[in-house]
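An instance follows:
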Amino acid sequence: MPKINIQHETQQKADDSWTAVKNFFETDLDIKKIDPKMQFQFDESAKKGTVKSSQFKAEFSIAGKGTGSALQLMIDLPLLLTPFKGKVEEIIRKKLAKYLA
C-alpha cells in the first residue's frame, strides 16, 4: 500500500490541534464522501488516533512543540489510488492547514 506521511507544525496548543484534527476526520464533508461509515479510535490522553475506512487507513498523533504543536499523520492508500497519491496528499495538506490555522 502506498503511504502518505504528513508532518505539520502549528502555533496552536496541542489540545486545540487535537480537537481540530478530530473535527477534520469526524465532520469534513469531503472525508465523509469517501466513506460515511468510517471508524474512529481516539486516545485523548495520548493525543493519538486511528481512522479506518473502506478506502484508506490513517494514524495520527499530536505532540507539543515549543509554544505550539506538531501533527504526525500517516495514511495508507489502496494500490488502486497510487496514481492519485500526490493529489490526495495535496488536498489533505490544504485541509489540515485550514483546520490548524
User: Anything to note?
Assistant: The beta strands are 3-10, 39-43, 48-52, 57-65, 68-76. The mean pLDDT is 93. DSSP finds three helices and five strands in the chain.
